[in-house]
Amino acid sequence: MNFVEANGAKIPAIGLGTMTLMEAACVEAVEAALCVGYRHIDTAERYRNESEVGEGLRRGLRAAGIEREDVFVATKVWRDQLAADDFECSLDQSLKKLELSWVDLLLVHWPNPTVPLKETLDALCKAKRDGRAKHVGVANFTTSLLEEAVKLASEPLVTNQIEVHPFIDQEKVLAACRTHGLAVTAYCPLARGKVPGNEVLARIGEAYGKTSAQIALRYLVQQGIIPIPRTAKPDRLAANLAVFNFNLSDAEMSEIARLKQAGLRVVSPPHAPRWDN
To answer: Residue 176 has what pLDDT?
Structure first.
């Protein structure tokens, strides 16, 4: 497994996203992912599947013959739990559901302007100091929020988890993350089904014997961005990992970059901040 290093964290370069994976399908997907080589599992309190992720983790550790310390587990605190006492309670509940004493990464899932950011970040950083989280970070933070968060955080932030795929222009926030040494974790890296069938990605894929999805993932990985595609299908789990045995040319990377368009964000709920693009 390749890794991305950021502010003291060593994060596996691709992970399994688990949003919408529920019940037995979630357990089986996490176990299967670990068995085919994944070492990075992403969940959240809001996904309501932390218990299933924890069960899949335990099964996967046994089946793959690996240790807990070999797997990078991330979870997130929802936006309505960002006040200090609520944050503590949410984290404790997440750990209880996962049946873990610590997670590798704890994120603020979405910013909430009704709670002072300092209060939230103090609670986040406390979780690292007391050992319940090895690393901390944020998700869905814009450039201005990121600047504020870096100044307020008493512990290093290691990632900003945001929507990134070939069709969205995130250059402003990507640049801000690089400036502060944060990794970027990419959710919806396949743009919720918009990648398969794209003519440019399919054509480039033919040259390497790869699918459009694998080209999109390679495009991100080659920039040091950490994609966390979601799937419950064993063949796709394996295919998503098979992006480290080839390199896209500079010309191909540039051609893919030109696919970016305004208005192709696939996640923008009512509580989203005012985006940079």
So the answer is: 98
Annotated catalytic residue within 38, 47, 187, 219: 47
Q: What is the pLDDT of residue 1?
A: 78
Contacts of the segment 95-102: beta carbons below 8 A, 24+ positions apart? 95/132, 97/50, 97/51, 97/54, 98/43, 98/50, 98/51, 98/53, 98/54, 98/57, 98/73, 99/54, 99/58, 100/54, 100/57, 100/68, 100/73, 101/131, 101/132, 102/131, 102/132, 102/133, 102/134
Q: Which tens digits make up the pLDDT trace of 156-187? A: 999 999 999 999 999 999 999 999 999 999 99
**What backbone torsions phi and psi does residue 13 show, to the nearest 5 degrees?**
-70, -10
Active site residue 47: yes
- Ordered structural domains, the chain, with CATH: 3-257 (3.20.20.100)
Cα separation of 102 and 132, whole Å? 4
pLDDT one-digit tens code per residue, 192-233: 999 998 999 999 999 999 999 999 999 999 999 999 999 999
pLDDT value of position 251: 98
Report whether pLDDT(263) > 80. no
